[in-house]
From TrEMBL:
Pfam families assigned to the protein according to its UniProt record, in alphabetical order: PMI_typeI_C, PMI_typeI_cat, PMI_typeI_hel
Reported function: Isomerase that catalyzes the interconversion of fructose-6-P and mannose-6-P and has a critical role in the supply of D-mannose derivatives required for many eukaryotic glycosylation reactions.
Taxonomic lineage: Eukaryota, Metazoa, Chordata, Craniata, Vertebrata
Keyword Phosphoprotein among record annotations: yes
Taxonomic source organism: Otus sunia
Essential cofactor(s): Zn(2+)
Protein name as it appears in the record: Mannose-6-phosphate isomerase
Amino acid sequence: MAEIRVFPLSCAVQSYAWGKMGLESEVAKLLASSDPLVQIQPNQPYAELWMGTHPRGDAIIRDNRIPQKTLGQWIADNPACLGVKVKDAFQGHLPFLFKVLSVNTALSIQAHPNKELAAKLHAQFPEHYPDANHKPEMAIALTPFEGLCGFRPVEEIVSFLQNVPELRALIGEVAAEQLERSGSDDPRGVSAALRVCFTRLMKSEKKFFVDQLNMLVKRISQEAAEGKDTSGSNGDLLLRLHSQYPGDIGCFTIYFLNLVRLEPGEAMFLGANEPHAYLHGDCVECMACSDNTVRAGLTPKFIDVLTLCEMLNYTPAPSSSKIFPAVQSQLDPSIYLYDPPVPDFAIMKIEIPSSIKLYLVSAVDSASILLVIQGTAVGTSTAAASEMTLRRGSVLFISANESISLHLSSPDGMLLFRACCLL
């Protein structure tokens, strides 16, 4: 029998508290449609679906002719499946973790270190920083998606400093004036002033910032009750985050960070040292294999304010600049490629129109993971032992240089996402 190099996966679900509940969650919906035997619990959060070889969620191989139980074990025994370049560049490991996220309440204010800082943090604090790798990430919206990402243009921050006295009190007059005076002709001066302001905020005394936050929430609640416009104080978002994380310093970061709204198919790329927090919605996400996260608010987990304030990229930019463009393939108009400026991963969105009944998922020189979001098909491949039924929520592992023919059976075409490594 020919060696099987394309096979379906059963993937791990993480039920973090911030996830959407039951069938509200895209993760749960994908799970339920891919496996009719799964019982979805209505009062359990279904936060993340992990498609990859991470030790805390190594995908299970759904083909009983394959002796290895998990994808991680199979790749360790068959490293050539990664493709020659990927195998050599990443020491025989799959270099990415592919995910679906369903976000109901905000994730922590966080950033991920570059490789140099990751190595240092891992050596000093291995209990908090478990590996020495960087963790760039890309999120592509499946439903309308909101997140905080990167520092706002200075004029927006200055406007909040002038409209939100509680914020100004925490930062202090000297730092606030320094930012107000910093000119756009001196970007290093702007970044330095921004660093001072943000660091002063994040290092505020707990009692002082809780008092200021309570005053702010009370004031905005009263203004909202009177029908006043609270947008000058970013009122709606403040009240929402405060209801999720009362008394948390992270509530004040909305005055520094861009609110980015993505429509389905739009993406944001989060490079090293970029402050961010996902707020609400469903997305596919791909990242380098790492667990290194430096947190500073909107979380009950370990926070490391000093490291975060030191490492951040303090370059202000408008929220529109955070949307990462997809490029339509010249060879195949069904493919849109999201290719970030890191070697570890890229994502293809494959939208097959209803007029096409036979579609070839073409070979690439990298192992890849294919996720079905919409549509049904029967997949055949010379590298698969038998036909594979693909439906919403199906996940396939495709070895390097293997292709799959899809015989579409759904009237509305298909929507697929494919994560790979394009060196």
